């Protein structure tokens, strides 16, 4: 808003699937830029709709894509149309970047401000130009077969609209990449909190930007605790902790400028002696500090439940909550406990103060029954690609038989498609590790409980929806193999697809079974997290994912006048969450207090 009020024409766009831009601006937003009142200048705001943008992008290019596929594969028009109508898991980053470029070109804006998704998926968004380039390469390999046949049969080849489409996609890739890497036209501001976990995530995030050739203009540290109006153990403790993080941030990212933004404070304080009203005790309970099996864990994890999933808006403390639950479960009665992170921007190891990777590891100082792991989606996808490449080679070797004919163009296209993979499919292969971990067959050390720390809201929902979308793709591929079995046979590729389909079906059943699985929504008592949590609960309900509890994190305890003002504001949000969430018995609402010095180990 400040840019617009300087007299400039400004467009602000959210690319986060769990949009909060409209909540922040107090306006209902959609994919078309809408006006936001400012004193002077012009401000428009939009929240990208990736599904609608994908549909529009495909509609404009459907004929060209179908033509290329018909020329370069064994598929007929019915097959091609079926694949073009399927949903693509993970397209929000790819299409979001294309849509962002389209909106920026649609009007002569002086500035375009982008509100991105949290760390892991923003890094993926910024890698999408390379994905576009790979798509153009796959299409070009398909078209190469047509060019070869045209030259062989007609003596020459004339470029047509299909070649123009390939060139267009290649140019879009190059143009977006050049824009992102041009420090004169693009400025990246990195936003973090003055907390140890946020600092560690920022180290990883800025290293990822550097690898992508993208420069950062400044570090913005948000929600810095202001000086209390009087003695306050909470405020003073937080300020000491935040000062250490600020000093380390300045050292870690020198010479980048660092801008510190204080936490907002409402000056309207309740009287010093007034008692803070409470949500009825039947609705909420505070977790006791140190029992071996906290009451909330018994409610969330009855004996039959095997999978506990934590999710919520970025920065609300879901990773710490997942780590806390896993530590408490391992200290109580029962079998082995495995805590997994599926967030591309892993913070679980930081929370547990242990270096983690894709293999299960013990947590020093914790129960020997606890293991922790940060899923490596790239590694899981690489292993799957290697298996599928072998299956494709087997298929084409069988197709060639004893003749010297090698359908090289078709083989190259299949290998290209495996190398490409839809954005987000890597997370699906990583998520399959959940069902693997809970399967005792062939795994005598299978844990009795898996605690899953997901990515922030928008991408956690996408992760939970991936099994359905991926199974549609597998069924389409199997139907093509069956249709052309006289030509290509079935072999190992079909076996791989059938096995993956079974695994996805088992994962779908697990995620929707309230006896075995529960989702815990983590939030904070503030306006934006509360609104996003309400949307999260709605979408989980629509997907059939059982919600077992709601954790409201960082509740301000009584203290100085500033703490009392914060507590009064938070009480309104806690009550609103209670009305929204507590619609049936048996779902606890847990209030976790803010601490003076957030420790890495819960």
Describe what this molecule looks like in 3D.
- By secondary structure, this protein is an alpha/beta fold.
- The chain folds into three domains: 2-118 and 137-186, no CATH class; 284-379 and 423-591, Rossmann fold (3-Layer(aba) Sandwich); 380-420.
- It is built from 21 helices and 16 strands.
- It has helices at residues 2-5, 21-25, 50-72, 77-85, 91-106, 119-126, 128-154, 161-181, 196-211, 233-252, 295-300, 318-331, 348-352, 377-400, 408-420, 425-437, 457-483, 485-488, 491-511, 527-543, 561-581; strands spanning 9-14, 34-35, 42-47, 111-115, 189-192, 218-224, 258-262, 284-286, 307-312, 337-341, 361-362, 370-374, 449-453, 517-523, 547-555, 589-593.
- Strand 11 and strand 12 form a beta hairpin.
- Helix 7 runs antiparallel to helix 15 (408-420) and helix 16 crosses helix 17 (457-483).
- It starts with a helix and ends in a 9-residue tail after the last strand.
- The model is unreliable at 268-292 and 402-406 (pLDDT under 50).
Short description:
The protein is an alpha/beta fold.
Would you tell me which CATH topology of the largest domain applies? Rossmann fold
Could you tell me how far the N terminus lies from the C terminus, measured between alpha carbons in angstroms? 38 Å
Tally of helical segments: 21
Query: What is the CATH superfamily label of the largest domain?
Result: P-loop containing nucleotide triphosphate hydrolases
Number of beta strands: 16
Low-confidence stretches: 268-292, 402-406
Name of the CATH architecture of the largest domain? 3-Layer(aba) Sandwich
Largest sheet: 9 strands, mixed
- Our estimate of the beta-strand percent is 5-15%
Task: Going across the biggest sheet, name each strand in turn.
Answer: 8-16-15-14-9-13-10-12-11
- CATH level 1 name of the largest domain: Alpha Beta
Cα-atom Rg, whole angstroms?
26 Å
**What is the 3D form?**
globular
Query: Can you give the helix content as a percent range?
Result: 40-55%
User: What structural class do you assign from the helix and strand content?
Assistant: alpha/beta
Structural domains: how many: 3
Mean pLDDT: 81
């Amino acid at each position: 808003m400040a840019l617009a009020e300087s007299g400039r024409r400004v467009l602000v766009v959210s690319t986060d699937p769990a949009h909060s831009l409209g909540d922040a601006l107090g306006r209902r937003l959609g994919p078309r830029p809408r006006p936001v009142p400012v004193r002077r200048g012009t401000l428009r705001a939009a929240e990208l709709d990736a599904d609608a943008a994908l549909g529009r992008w495909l509609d404009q290019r459907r004929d060209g894509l179908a033509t290329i596929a018909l020329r370069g594969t064994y598929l007929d028009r019915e097959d091609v149309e079926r694949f073009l109508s399927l949903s693509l898991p993970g397209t929000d980053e790819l299409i979001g970047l294309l849509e962002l470029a389209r909106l920026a070109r649609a009007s002569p804006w002086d500035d375009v401000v982008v509100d991105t998704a949290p760390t892991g998926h923003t890094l993926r968004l910024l890698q999408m130009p390379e994905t576009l380039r790979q798509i153009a390469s796959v299409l070009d390999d398909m078209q190469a077969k047509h060019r070869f046949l045209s030259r062989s049969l007609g003596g020459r080849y004339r470029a047509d609209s299909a070649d123009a489409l390939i060139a267009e996609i290649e140019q879009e890739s190059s143009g977006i990449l050049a824009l992102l890497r041009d420090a004169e036209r693009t400025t990246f501001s990195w936003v973090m909190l003055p907390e140890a976990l946020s600092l560690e995530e920022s180290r990883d995030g800025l290293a990822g930007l550097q690898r992508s050739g993208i420069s950062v203009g400044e570090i913005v540290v948000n929600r810095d605790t202001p000086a209390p109006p009087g003695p306050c153990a909470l405020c003073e403790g937080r300020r000491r902790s935040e000062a250490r993080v600020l000093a380390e941030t300045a050292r870690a990212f020198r010479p980048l400028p660092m801008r510190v933004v204080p936490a907002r404070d409402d000056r309207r304080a309740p009287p010093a002696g007034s008692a803070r009203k409470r949500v009825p005790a039947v609705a909420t309970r505070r977790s006791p500090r140190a029992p071996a099996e906290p009451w909330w864990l018994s409610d969330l994890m009855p004996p039959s439940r095997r999978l506990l999933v934590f999710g919520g808006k970025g920065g609300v403390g879901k990773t710490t909550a997942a780590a806390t639950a896993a530590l408490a479960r391992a200290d109580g009665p029962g079998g082995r406990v495995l805590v997994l992170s599926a967030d591309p921007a892993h913070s679980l190891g930081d929370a547990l103060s242990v270096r983690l990777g894709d293999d299960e590891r013990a947590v020093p100082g914790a129960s020997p029954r606890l293991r922790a792991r940060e899923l490596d989606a790239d590694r899981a996808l690489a292993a799957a690609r290697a298996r599928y490449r072998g299956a494709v080679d087997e298929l084409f070797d069988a197709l060639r038989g004893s003749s010297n004919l090698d359908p090289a163009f078709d083989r190259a296209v299949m290998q290209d498609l495996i190398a490409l993979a839809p954005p987000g499919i890597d997370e699906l292969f990583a998520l399959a590790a959940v069902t693997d971990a809970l399967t005792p067959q062939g795994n005598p050390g299978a844990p009795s409980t898996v605690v899953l720390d997901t990515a922030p809201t928008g991408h956690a929902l996408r992760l939970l929806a991936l099994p359905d979308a991926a199974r549609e793709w597998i069924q389409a591929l199997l139907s093509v193999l069956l249709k052309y079995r006289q030509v290509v046979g079935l072999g190992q590729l079909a076996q791989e697809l059938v096995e993956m389909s079974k695994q996805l079906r088992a994962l779908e059943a697990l995620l929707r079974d309230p006896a075995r699985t529960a989702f815990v929504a983590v939030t904070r008592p503030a306006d934006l997290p509360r609104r996003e949590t309400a949307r999260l609960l709605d979408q989980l309900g629509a997907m059939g994912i059982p919600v077992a509890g709601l954790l409201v994190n960082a509740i301000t305890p009584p203290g100085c006048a500033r703490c009392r003002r914060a507590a009064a504001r938070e009480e309104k949000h806690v009550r609103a969450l209670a009305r929204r969430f507590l619609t049936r018995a048996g779902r606890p609402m847990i209030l976790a207090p803010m601490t003076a010095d957030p420790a890495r180990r819960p």
